[in-house]
Design a protein that fits this description.
2 copies of one chain form a homodimer. By secondary structure, chain A is an alpha/beta fold. Chain A folds into 2 domains: about 200 residues, Rossmann fold (3-Layer(aba) Sandwich), CATH 3.40.50.1400; about 140 residues, Rossmann fold (3-Layer(aba) Sandwich). In chain A, about 45% of the residues lie in helices and about 10% in strands. The first copy, chain A, contains 15 helices and 8 strands. A 4-stranded parallel β-sheet of chain A has the order 2-1-3-4, sandwiched between helices. In chain A, strands 6-5-7-8 form a 4-stranded parallel β-sheet, sandwiched between helices. In chain A, α6 links the parallel β3 and β4. In chain A, α7 crosses α10 and α7 packs antiparallel against α13. Chain A is globular and about 65 Å long. Chain A starts with a helix and ends with a helix. The N terminus of chain A is likely disordered. At the A-B interface, α8, α10, β6, α11 and α15 of A face α8, α10, β6, α11 and α14 of B.
Chain lengths: ~400, ~400
Amino acid sequence: MNSLRRVLVSPSFNSPVRFTSTTTDGSPKPKTGILMLNMGGPRNSEEVKQFLTNLFADRDIIRLPVQNKLGPWIANRRTPSIIEKYNEIGGGSPIYDWTSKQGALMCAKLDQLCPESAPHKAYVGFRYAKPTTEEALEQIEEDGVEHVVAFSQYPQYSCTTSGSSMKAIYRYFQQNYPLKTPGPTGDGVTWSVIDRWPTHPLLIKTFAQNIMKELDTFPEHIRSQVVLLFSAHSVPQYVMNRGDPYPAEMGATVQLVMQELGWCNPYRLVWQSKVGPLPWLEPGTENTIKAMVKKGQKNLMLIPIAFVNDHIETLHELDIEYAQDLGKEVGAERIGRCAAPNCDPTFIDCLADLVSTHLKSGETVKPQMLMTCPMCTEESCKDAKMWWSKATGYLEKQQKVASSA
Amino acid sequence: MNSLRRVLVSPSFNSPVRFTSTTTDGSPKPKTGILMLNMGGPRNSEEVKQFLTNLFADRDIIRLPVQNKLGPWIANRRTPSIIEKYNEIGGGSPIYDWTSKQGALMCAKLDQLCPESAPHKAYVGFRYAKPTTEEALEQIEEDGVEHVVAFSQYPQYSCTTSGSSMKAIYRYFQQNYPLKTPGPTGDGVTWSVIDRWPTHPLLIKTFAQNIMKELDTFPEHIRSQVVLLFSAHSVPQYVMNRGDPYPAEMGATVQLVMQELGWCNPYRLVWQSKVGPLPWLEPGTENTIKAMVKKGQKNLMLIPIAFVNDHIETLHELDIEYAQDLGKEVGAERIGRCAAPNCDPTFIDCLADLVSTHLKSGETVKPQMLMTCPMCTEESCKDAKMWWSKATGYLEKQQKVASSA
């Protein structure tokens, strides 16, 4: 559990934060836990292999034949080249540091905004890296939290990302407490979910401000011609074809950011990080850069619209592989990169507003999260969603409405 | 030009409207023309063949080998079955009536909102039916309009729809005035463009209100479980892969409508009207209905999110083929259908607000419309966009900025 304690005491964290929510230093016991869910990343070279092994074992994000054999084999084979990439960006992923800082800053705000649910404590729950979702859940139990908010740190929902984290929580409870579901009729600990927030005004404002800042670094006479490339992590076409909401929600974020900017520049939504031979969402970021420069659009800006923290896909793929190496190769004048939200004060306000509005409204879960994709045939998706509809008290409410008819 | 006159004097139109903008009845000469662009539809059986012939000739929407031979052949072969469908919905498409009514109501509001650009006159310019875009442009010339707003009636932009209309305008001028471009440095008639409005608050409100009204027709105890299926016209996957903005903008409209509704029900964006053997956007509306009902979701609502008027795709495909016939076949309890905006007062306010805000801001064109899709290799797209950048005065402005650097 040591890794979890570090959530609130990040060594590189300089801003003053009130650690009202830790339990070991004499501060009050947390009443409300905010479980910040994300895929995570290896903090150092030693963690790369385990991270990749976990990633390639997750059938929600990658499907392989004989996955339990082929997954570890691929992970093993890729480890050296991925370690090399992490070495080029300082040795590890900063996602843990950023998430823990965001959580601490958010909780400090929440304690002021929502005294009725205070003290609040943030728990980092990563899908493929330490601290894992399971470790976070153990710590939440140990702390005796009364209410838990499962808070996806992906603004746009995909079954391959947020959905995978929601399933990890379901599986933890299934394995450890197969006979009881948390929630109002269960063990007394109540659960609620913030599963998506692609249109939150402060998320939009954060990106718009960061784009304006980056635009200002281009010479004035070409500023209005810079093409804004909103680059999101791609996903396989088959995921989309079964009805995954991810591309639609990404489109929403992009449109609203452009609206906030007064549609000042040309732009496109493009997709990065495709792997393997199957068709994924197109057009790809790399091919788009090549095509745009060939057409004479030599000033571009890359905007990482799908993640709220810097990670290898921004610091290495966007900054080194595309902005630097590819830009030089194809003869771009300049490829800028918009900052990720990280600990931008507007973004911290966004996180705090999302959770405080959620807590005050008494919302437990949006019906959208409880419905499987139209073409989904995965039993585990159906089971996970049924579990969540019980854990959040949604099913019970529905049954009451039905029986009163 | 008789067809154009009918734009403002629709026989089935009962609301009182001030026809301030016609020129033949003694009312003042229009100062500002609002060219309402859409694909159109045949008003009666006689127009079906020509409509289909025009549609299958447009390489922006359909690509066929030896298109000038195969297009008319397909159009001819399809005519009888399409006539039959139109007969089932009253003999023809109501899109002309709706668009002309919307235009008249909008202009009445504009004359009040924007006295400085009054009188305003709406012109209907259809891509495949009468009155055609070319006929509308002739009438605009004849009327001696000073400023023209090219106003796409598709809220979400696709090169296959709005883009095709913009290209038709470019082609009309190229063919008739190959040596001059309209605009500030041309013939004195100025042009501006409203090319997309997927996030306009009053568009969102119109859909949200209509959804609420339709939800109210479901029994209370199942109301919150009705699955909202936002059904948009599909497009071929290759169109998306070259970077067409359509699916992203559709996603934006859907998210904002759900936000306005407080995320009250589960929902999905699905795609209708696929033709031919190539892959198109998925999941399809028909297959989604089948899958949802099979999973036990027996109450559904279809929401035509991509068009602002009723037409064959709502009145026949959604209402008859899916809600009625398919619903019965698969054992749905009830498949409702949300009303199209048509002449809903909130929607008329939306149209008037879009144009008045546009006129008052002095906006001419959004840079987005002037950029070709990243993977587009079509010379005609490049040429059309260059023409628009001249016609709207955008190019001249850019050149001034560049030369002052």
